[in-house]
Amino acid sequence: MTAMLSRQRPRPRATLVLSIAVLAFFVLIGCMSLIWLPQDPTDFVSTDPFAPPSAGIWLGTDQLGRDVLSRLMDGTRITLLMAFAATLLAHLIGDTLGLLAALRGGLLDAVLSRIVDVILSLPKIIVGLVVVAALGASIPVLVVVAAFVYAAGVFRISRALGADLVRLDYMQIARSRGEGLGWLLFGEMLPHVVRPLATDFALRMSFAILFMSSLSFVGLGVQPPMADWGGMAKENLEGLSTNPLAAIAPAAAIALVSIALNLLVDALDGEAGSGR
Amino acid sequence: MTRFILWRLAATALLLLVVSLLVFWACEILPGDVAQVALGQFATPENVKALRIEMGLDRPAAERYLGWLMGVLQGDWGRSLVSKSPVSSLLSERVANTALLAGATTLIAVPLALTLGLVMAVWRGRALDRGMSVAILALSATPEFLLATLAVLLFAVKLGWLPAVAYLSAGSSLPQTVRALLLPTASLVIVVTAQIARMTRAIIGNILTQSYIEMAVLKGVPSRRLVMRHALVNAVGPLANVVALNVAYLVSGIVVVETVFAYPGLARLMIDAVQSRDLPVVQACAMIFCATYVLLILLADIFARIADPHSAAQRPADAI
Amino acid sequence: MTAPGKVLAVEDLTIVSNAGTRVVDGVSLRVARGEVLALIGASGSGKTTLALAALGHLRPGLARQAGTVRLDGADVFAMTAQQLNDLRGRKVAYVAQSAAAAFNPRLRLTDQVIESALLHGAQSESAARLRATDLFRYLALPNPETIGRRFPYQVSGGQLQRFMIAMGLQEEPLLLVCDEPTSALDVTTQVEVMRLLKNAIADNDTAALFVSHDLAVVAQIATRIAVMRAGRIVECGPTAEIIAAPREDYTRALIAACGHLPGRDGALVPAAAPHTDGLEARSIVAGYGRAEGGQPAVLSLRDVDLAVGRGEIVAVIGESGSGKSTLARVLAGLHAPASGTLRLAGAPLAALDRDRSKAERRRIQLVVQMADTALNPRHSLRRILGRTLKFFHGLTGAQAEARMADLLARVSLPAEYLDRYPTQISGGEKQRVNLARALAAEPEVLICDEITSALDTIVAQSIIALVKGLRDELGLAVIFISHDLATVADIANRVTVLRHGRVVEAGPTAAVLTAPQNPYTKLLTASVPELRVGWLEDAAATRDDLSAALRQGPSEAVPA
User: Fold this and answer.
1) Å from C116 to nearest chain B CA?
2) Fewer CB atoms inside 10 Å of the end CB: C or N, chain A?
3) Residue C308: which H helix or E strand, with range?
């Protein structure tokens, strides 16, 4: 009866399939890098730095004469695992606290919300730089810092989702029946928030990949001789004139994964939020 | 309204104070012995001790914080551990360069993005909208360093039209400055425009599902006017927030782009300082970035409130 | 093709949804100048879709499969966007149900009222503004010269609906399409808006298509009535004929379900003296916002007394803003009152649910208005009912299964429904499940908060009969909160009338309905639509008589 226009949005099947295919491809590469790589990623396969692609060395060599393809495949695992770990941690912290704040309200909600306000009012990359300055660059530091800055955004979303639910009559009725926290959280609320939170996970992971790659790219992320994609793009920047693939390929890989994640989110539920 | 602005100003002042505490804590307490950190692993204990006294690390933390904060308020950011010169002298030119880059990007990206977003909304559902949506989604998810690297490869390495390194100095002429700024600005503009245009389209799209838009359709309002008047007047507040958030988000792009082009800006200074663990400089840069970000969000909040002063107003009851 | 004098001619129109349902199924109808054709039907009968088709508009997800809609001889579905824009507002205008949602919150009222006239170039700006001011005066809006400078949120709901009518009349269209124009209004406001609309249509010699679910309302204004069901017109004829001699069973059911006050035609429920063996509330003061000096900033309830005994139904009547929903929440323990006491079966009862014992929470059960939001859409009915049985009675397995079947039978639903989810059943069925869940707790007191107001009249009737059965067979004490006197007239033993958070009148139903003492109660009883010619004029006259007495309250002043 109300004059709301239903949003007509035919689900873009093609983009959904495409984005899942791209992500699956990279996950597969990441797994494969554990058992087989074309070359040892730390071996000097050529005496020439930035040698252009040749037989067996399909993407050429990097600034120390190492095989770019092998390092790219090896970096897949590092990049994706770091982003996944950071996002998982962010969601574990953010979801638990967000739903709890929505349900309990009061002082807990007020305190947590103010803390989150402060975290969100800081530019993420600057927080990353300051923490790296204080503690040095290492993979655990990167993961924890990314989890920390993104947990705040996750908290906002899960709290908002929870707050919408708490107002609903069936939640009120369950509470007035005297139901405990466990039932309210897992019995009544969880089935409703799983999907939006899963969508947010994908989006948040794309932010985390860009965040950590940017730190690596400015030389403050993963430290040599290990390299994630951001680090590779940085190391090989000087070789742009002889073997541009050495710098472009890792950067393009990041773009591909990030775009695939965003397309996935877009296909799943309309428009994605901001907060990168 | 005045009360709202005063309240928000007070809240922002408090927030900045908290931020300064966090920055101080992160740079002076978190790393442990700052003098040791600054001198590295191979410093002799005597050198470390001397530096500790020079930096005043023997004083209690609270006293050091207050001293630092007072200095900051007077424009004294302390001395660099590396160059030994006052931090403020390092900052001035760098701040101006970064402001130039950010300003140029904002001036181009914001009008461009709003126009694109509105064009997509007017042509919603058509091929133009769908095609642009995918392109903009892809660009907004692309890391700046890919765009910047590609730009260097094409315009500097292959074509040789523009410099790969954006060298700027106080004496640069206008054409030199423009040439230096062209590639860094373009890389930033693409990503920021994509982000803002995407959100503009989403905000307008949401408003277009409202009942009053259907009512306007039934009054005979044409599609363009529907977007440009009926939807836009309701989008001003949310759009102000989107623009502020994205201009603030520029910070991350600037960090990357200044690295690619070796642009002599504040972000580059901060990265170098982080690498050499020159903590007073890190402190100063972090404070400037955070304060700018916080103030931009404050401005957007106030602007949104002015555009939408009655968001919380209540409808009067029916009289009998 | 069109016969002379026919403004609107719909021929064999079929509109289908994406899912393939025929929302409008082979409908033909005509409306002539000066004629008001009412489309009446339950929600989902396709009446709004048909009305919008008269403007050449289809909502997203709908498509015209066959048939034509001719307006003043021209086929609207053959027109270009430009031609349609030229038509809308000028030859055919639309009056929407919810004026609150249909006005752009950020544009001034007059600008919205005159927008289409300016776009059409039909009137100069100054002429358009003059015309709008005239219309505001005609529609009895206060300060017609200046009120149009306000924004929509600065006027009341009833005033906004009048702006909507003014917007419709601005260009003197041939056809006015009114979609439930008064359904969102309180009954006392509805009378005023209906009278204005009726006069406006008559004075302008406009044709009108009037969509409504309420036969009594329609009977006051329509010259002809078309009854719609499942996309088809099942019966169509002159108003008097339809009411006096309906041919279809469905029409007869609509007429039977029509709200009427039984006081005038006999049978009223006998009322006993107030009981205290149920729930009793004394001197309840409640509100919202930060308390200052012991009183909340905004008071919703001021010194309210209410008592209900076992085996009786007490109705609480109030319009929007009367505080009736706050009262339901206070009684259910969901909202803490600022002061006042509650007693359950004579024993003191804590204000908030968390301070009540499990047994106390079990003994008082709340059923809410929106059946949709009251049931978790991710839970099957088995889980919804089973949880309450397990929680309060520890019932599981076969015992619980048997009890659930009993409960569904009790609310006249088949046992197979246990495996369904709320999204798979109708609105009326959801409300039955809500009642079943409340009954699963084996309560003594049942609080029903507007449980029928979201339902179609015929379905609402059956829910009311069900509640009556629960009182008589289970001896429940029922508090029945409603905005509509007619709804409760048949079942309530006693009535309490709330206005602006105060009890203005309370007593046995017969006394309150047949001989109301308070002017507001008088107005309420007079405002209940009746299915007879001339009721609207009587109600409006009563309203005029009482308005002076009613304006005295401080909170009722017209906002300046």
Assistant:
1) 6
2) N
3) strand C295-308
Question: What radius of gyration do chain B's Cα atoms show?
Answer: 24
B255·A129 Cβ contact <8 A? yes
CA distance B319 to chain A (A): 25
Q: Is A65:A46 a contact under the CB 8 Å cutoff? A: yes
Give the list of residues 6+ apart from residue A19 with CB closer than 8 angstroms, or none. Answer: A259, A260, A261, A263, A264, A267
Answer for the pair C48, C91: CB distance below 8 angstroms, yes or no: no
| C98–B211 CB contact, under 8 Å | yes
Residue B229 DSSP one-character state: I
Cα separation, C386 vs C374, in Å, equals 16
Report pLDDT for B310.
Answer: 60
Question: Per residue of chain C (560 residues), what is the pLDDT tens digit?
Answer: 444 568 999 999 999 998 888 999 999 999 998 899 999 988 888 999 999 999 999 998 899 999 999 999 999 999 999 999 999 999 999 999 888 889 998 899 999 999 999 999 989 999 999 999 999 999 889 999 999 999 998 888 889 999 999 999 999 999 999 998 888 788 888 888 888 889 988 888 899 999 998 888 888 999 999 999 999 999 999 999 998 899 999 998 888 877 666 554 445 555 555 566 889 999 999 988 776 666 787 888 999 999 999 999 999 998 888 889 899 999 999 888 999 999 999 899 998 888 999 999 999 999 988 877 899 998 999 999 999 999 999 999 899 999 999 999 999 999 999 999 998 888 889 999 999 999 999 999 999 998 988 888 888 888 999 999 999 999 999 999 998 888 888 889 999 999 989 999 999 988 888 888 899 998 888 888 888 878 888 888 888 888 777 765 444 333 33
Cis peptide before A225 (omega within 30 of 0): yes
How far apart are alpha carbons A33 and A81 in whole angstroms? 13
Contacts of C387 in chain A (CB under 8 A): 183, 187
Torsion of CA C149, C151, C155, C156, to 10 degrees: 150
Contact C59 A5 (CB under 8 A): yes
Q: Can you state the percent helix, strand and coil of chain C, rounding each to 5?
A: 40, 25, 35
* All residues at 6 or more sequence positions from C232 whose CB lies less than 8 Å from its CB, including other chains: C25, C26, C27
Per the DSSP assignment, residues forming a β-bridge with C445 are C364, C477
- Cα of A162 to nearest chain C Cα, Å: 14
Are A178 and C96 inside 8 Å of each other by CB? no
Helices (H), chain B: 2-24, 34-39, 45-55, 61-73, 87-122, 127-140, 144-151, 174-207, 211-218, 223-225, 232-260, 266-275, 279-307
Q: Closest by alpha carbon to B270, among C114, B279, C144, C151?
A: B279
Mutate to test the interface with C, among B126, B203, B204, B215 (most CBs of C within 10 A): B215
Cβ atoms of residues B23 and B290 within 8 Å: yes
CB pairs under 8 A between B and C: 108
| Spatial separation of the C-alpha atoms in residues C89 and C98, rounded to whole Å | 18
Single pTM value for the model: 0.84
Helices (H) and strands (E) in chain C, counts: 21, 20
Rounded CA gap, A72 and A236, in Å? 12
Structure tokens at B265: 């800006």
For residue B11, which phi and psi values (nearest 5 degrees)? Answer: -60, -40
Nearest to C323 by CA among C528, C555, C509: C555
Beta partners for residue C284, in sequence order: C304
Q: What is the DSSP string of C205-231?
A: T-EEEEEES-HHHHHTT-SEEEEEETT
Q: Of B176, B231, B240, B241, whose CA–CA distance to B207 is shortest? A: B231
